[in-house]
Automatic annotation (TrEMBL):
GO BP, one annotated term: cilium assembly
UniProt name for this protein: IQ calmodulin-binding motif-containing protein 1
Annotated CDD domains: IQCD
InterPro entries referenced in this protein's UniProt entry, alphabetically: ARM-type_fold, IQ_motif_EF-hand-BS, IQCB1, P-loop_NTPase
Organism: Marmota monax
Compartments in which it is found: Cytoplasm, Cytoskeleton, Microtubule organizing center, Centrosome
PROSITE patterns: IQ
Keyword Membrane: no
Cellular component annotations (GO), alphabetically ordered: centrosome; photoreceptor connecting cilium
Primary role: Involved in ciliogenesis. The function in an early step in cilia formation depends on its association with CEP290/NPHP6. Involved in regulation of the BBSome complex integrity, specifically for presence of BBS2 and BBS5 in the complex, and in ciliary targeting of selected BBSome cargos. May play a role in controlling entry of the BBSome complex to cilia possibly implicating CEP290/NPHP6.
UniProtKB keywords: Calmodulin-binding, Cilium biogenesis/degradation, Coiled coil, Cytoplasm, Cytoskeleton, Repeat
Keyword Transmembrane found: no
Chief place of localization: cytoplasm
Molecular function via GO: calmodulin binding
């Protein structure tokens, strides 16, 4: 979108560029220099002109011209050097508006790269030039392009990293020519003075290459100008970044650098900078730098920790204030309640005192009224009766107090007496069971010995029985067959008895289940009185059995929870005797069916 209120000079220039042939475009673009120079520096009018130039793509035309071959451009290097000045001045202080991303990410890096390419071409032309005048002219153009690049980098610092990482810049830095090398080293020094932080953001390989080239120029270049610039540049790098100083001090690539610098000539223009650089590379200075670095790291850690603690306290401050307010309000409420309670107690005490005073006054008035009614002759008798009644009341209260005091004093002994009685009862019951068991086993333990006459009598009875029931004589085969038949019948009897026992157990279980179901059904409410899910409780045949099991289980628990002295003398096989009232209290809620509670 073209801006409104465009300068007519920019409009006519853009129209002329659009209509003119390609070879005349560079000369036409030179008119921008006159327009920029005639506008006051820093004014809003200049910013508007730069914005118009960008909106009508005149800056893009300048970039396209810079990318062309110099021999095809009218005016040659003079036109190109002036176009670099125009391009750098137009890009610095320009507000691209909506096209900011394209301007900062594409146009500016492309312009910086074109400037470096132009410097490479000028370097080649300078080396190939034969005449001295021609070299001076090319060197002048090289200086103009370098100044334009520095102006562009000063306005857009983010381009410094792109320039330092460029291969074209590294090739320019590695030149052996004294004049070009001096200009490039000065450019690098000025760049690092603007923003030295970008030096650490470039790749390590590129950084090593730059350091190697600077150190090479210090040690090997005969020109004092380049050596001075290189020394100042290396000193600036070491002082600005401790990482570079540590690299120069510890890296194996730069081992012996301090000794080589000590061998350099003294008394030159850059001897002071050289002395400072040597002192920086000394172990003492390095130790100071390390200590300073550790101090800064400690300060940073302390600052982070203190900041964290402060933020934590600030974050907890609202909750602490809320807790303090809650505690204060709670304490105030408790104090208020205590004061109210004291006031109520004081008021009650006063009320009781007033009631006692009223009662005493009424009693005295009643006594006076009675004295007025009673005959004077019976006054003594009345006083005696009142004294006797008062004495009886006093004696009654005193005896009650005395008996209660005795009871509380004798209460531990009474509890001990009851416990002893319970223990004696349990022990006596246990001893009675032991005596009963001994009586049951006594006939088997005390068999009477047989006498000779009794033995003869018993033998005579056995002989008579055998004589009366003499057995028939059978053969051995018949005896074995009879024995086999007896064994078979015995086996059949045992098998049948096992099945009969299982069937009997099953019948007993069914009878128990039936009796339980009948009992539950008898106690169940009628269908009219049933509510909720009570009828569903009788759909499953296992629920009554489960209820019976729960009842038995809880009965056992009731017995287990009983005191130990109640279970003295009981045997494992004895039945548990639990009162039915306690069972109804504990197990009342477990019945599946039953009468409906009132």
């Amino acid at each position: 979108m073209k801006p409104t209120g465009t300068d007519p000079r920019i409009l006519s220039l853009a129209a002329e560029v659009a209509k003119s042939p390609e070879q005349n475009v560079p000369v036409i673009l030179l008119k921008l220099k006159e327009i920029i120079n005639n506008t006051p520096v820093g004014s809003s009018e200049l910013k508007k002109i730069k914005q118009d130039i960008y909106c009508y793509d005149l800056i893009q035309y300048c970039l396209l011209v810079l990318g062309q071959d110099c021999s095809r451009i009218q005016g040659g290097w003079t036109t190109i050097s002036q176009l670099t000045q125009i391009l750098s001045h137009c890009c610095v202080g320009l507000d691209p508006g909506e096209d900011a991303e394209e301007f900062y990410k594409e146009l500016l890096p492309s312009a910086a790269e074109n400037f470096l390419i132009l410097e490479r071409r000028l370097q080649t032309c300078f080396i190939n030039a034969a005449k001295g005048e021609e070299k001076d002219e090319i060197l002048h153009f090289f200086q103009i392009v370098t100044d334009s690049l520095f102006w562009l980098l000063g306005g857009h610092v983010q381009l410094i990293q792109n320039v330092l990482q460029s291969d074209h810049f590294l090739h320019l830095l590695q030149t052996d020519n004294v004049q070009i090398g001096s200009i490039v080293m000065t450019l690098l020094q000025n760049i690092l003075q603007i923003n030295s932080g970008d030096l650490l953001r470039i790749e390590g390989k590129t950084l090593h290459s730059i350091l190697d080239e600077v150190i090479f120029k210090i040690l090997s270049t005969p020109s004092p100008v380049i050596r001075s610039t290189s020394t100042k540049l290396l000193l600036l790098m070491a002082e600005s970044h401790q990482e570079i100083l540590i690299l120069l001090r510890l890296s194996a690539c730069y081992k012996g650098l301090r000794n080589l610098l000590n061998k350099q000539e003294t008394g030159t223009e850059f001897s002071q900078e050289l002395t400072q650089l040597i002192s920086l590379l000394s172990p003492q200075i390095y130790q100071e730098v390390e200590d300073q670095k550790l101090h800064q790291a400690a300060c940073l850690i302390q600052a982070c920790w203190k900041g964290f603690q402060t933020r934590k306290r600030i974050k907890k401050l609202p909750s602490a204030v809320i807790a303090l307010q809650r505690s204060f309000r709670s304490k105030r409420t408790k104090t208020q309640l205590k004061l109210n309670r004291q006031k109520e107690e004081e008021h009650l005490r006063l009320q009781l005192q007033l009631q006692r005073q009223r009662a005493m006054r009424l009693s005295r008035e009643l006594r006076l009224s009675m004295l007025e009614i009673v005959h004077p002759g019976q006054l003594e008798k009345y006083n005696r009766e009142m004294e006797e009644k008062s004495a009886l009341i006093i004696q009654k209260y005193w005896r009650g107090y005395r008996e209660r005091k005795k009871f509380y004093q004798q209460r531990p002994s009474l509890m001990e007496y009851k416990a002893a009685v319970t223990l004696q009862r349990a022990v006596l019951k246990f001893l009675a069971k032991c005596r009963k068991r001994k009586k049951q086993l006594a006939p088997w333990q005390r068999l009477q010995e047989l006498t000779d006459a009794r033995r003869v009598e018993l033998k005579q009875q056995v002989d008579d029985y055998i004589r009366r029931h003499s057995g028939s004589q059978i053969s051995g085969v018949a005896s074995r067959e009879l024995h086999a038949q007896a064994q078979e019948q015995l086996q059949h009897y045992f098998m049948g008895r096992t099945l009969e026992e299982r069937a009997q157990q099953h019948r007993e279980a069914l009878m128990a289940q039936i009796s339980t179901n009948i009992e539950q059904l008898m106690k169940a409410p009628s269908l009219k009185e049933a509510e909720g899910k009570e009828p569903e409780l009788f759909l499953s045949r296992s629920r009554p059995v489960a209820a019976k099991a729960k009842q038995a289980h809880l009965t056992t628990l009731k017995h287990i929870q009983a005191p130990w002295w109640k279970k003295l003398g009981e045997e494992p096989g004895d039945e548990i005797d639990v009162p039915k009232d306690e069972l109804s209290i504990e197990l009342g809620t477990l019945f599946i069916g039953g009468t409906k509670p009132p």
